[in-house]
Structure formats: structure tokens, C-alpha cells
Write a structure and sequence with these properties.
Elements lengths: L8 H15 L20 E12 L2 E13 L4 E14 L3 E17 L2 E16 L7 E16 L2 E8 L13 E7 L2
């Protein structure tokens, strides 16, 4: 029987805590954004990421659209989708598909705190038969801090569930660059 991240009480608590933190913004007052009443689409911002890499026998492409809802000037929450294809001609190819929920809090206009639950399906197909192909789900819980100016935030986030063997990230600390319009 595989040891699932959900079978460990500490991991389960962190996942539940992150989801609750991400959606705690739902209870916030949004009167600062629109004094005429609630207009859902005026509070939505879109963003995401695109990535493309080429090297000696290596190709990687990522598409990750995202949308957040601004509850007020301090709290936002949203969702993101992720699709990544990676191929190393000599070693393996990988397809990564999933999504995430994110909660954002700006205690000051320039400072952004974030919590994010990401759940990705990873499929790795190795070229060499001595390696076993992988097909698994990988959760990640990030807590981050960033500097915001206009629509851009640059910062660092930490994955409390980082697993050196299964994570698609090389390290638990991951820099980020967010743009929302």
C-alpha cells in the first residue's frame, strides 16, 4: 500500500488550513471596491503564465491561465489551471496537468501574502527500461510573500509538502512572478 500524503495527520491539517485560509476572504466586506453595489465581473482579474524552454535535447512548454476575484483592496482568491509538457531526448518525457486555489492578502499595498493549494497529475515516461514509469498525483501547499507594484508581484513561496523524489519543483523554495489585469 502506498503512503499517501492524505494519510499523514500533519499534511491533512496543512491542506485543510490552506483551503480555509484561501477562502476566508469570502467573508470580507467588498464595499471599498464598488460603492454602486455588487458587480461580479468588475472584481475579476485575469493572469497566468506561459513558459517555453529549449536546450540540448530538452524541450519544455507550460500554459497556466489564472483568474482571481478581489473581495476588497486587501483580500483576493482565485483558481489556476496548469499544463506542462517536458521532454529530455535522452532520459524521459513528462506531462503535468492540474490546478490550484490561491488566497491573497495585501496588509499594505506593496506587500502580498499568499497561500496556495496546488494539485498536479504527473505522468513520466522514461526512455531507459531500468527506470519505472511514473503516474501519480502530487499535492503542494505554498505560503508566500511578495512585493507588489501596479499589477505585478515578485516574490518567493515555500512548499510545506515538498518531496525531493516526486515534486516537479527542484526545491521547496520557489520564486514567483505574478501579473493580473
Amino acid at each position: 500500500m502506498k503512503n499517501s500524503v492524505f494519510s499523514r495527520p500533519k499534511s491533512t491539517f496543512l491542506i485543510i488550513f490552506t483551503l480555509l485560509a484561501s477562502f476566508s476572504a469570502f467573508s470580507q466586506n467588498n464595499s471599498n471596491l464598488n460603492s454602486r453595489g455588487s458587480d461580479f465581473w468588475q472584481h475579476i482579474r485575469f493572469g497566468g503564465g506561459l513558459g517555453l524552454s529549449f536546450a540540448n535535447g530538452i524541450f519544455s512548454a507550460t500554459v497556466a491561465p489564472s483568474a482571481i476575484y478581489d473581495f476588497n483592496t486587501q483580500f483576493s482568491a482565485g483558481v489556476s489551471l496548469n499544463y506542462t509538457y517536458f521532454k529530455d531526448d535522452d532520459f524521459f518525457k513528462s506531462t503535468i496537468v492540474g490546478g490550484s486555489f490561491i488566497g491573497l492578502f495585501n496588509p499594505l499595498p506593496e506587500i502580498q501574502l499568499s497561500s496556495e493549494f496546488e494539485y498536479l497529475h504527473v505522468s513520466r515516461d522514461f526512455e531507459d527500461p531500468i527506470f519505472v514509469d511514473d503516474d501519480y498525483w502530487q499535492p503542494a501547499v505554498f505560503f508566500g510573500v511578495g512585493y507588489t507594484t501596479n499589477n505585478i508581484t515578485v516574490g518567493i513561496r515555500y512548499n510545506v509538502l515538498h518531496d525531493d523524489d516526486k515534486s516537479i519543483y527542484a526545491d521547496a523554495l520557489v520564486p514567483f512572478f505574478r501579473v493580473y489585469f
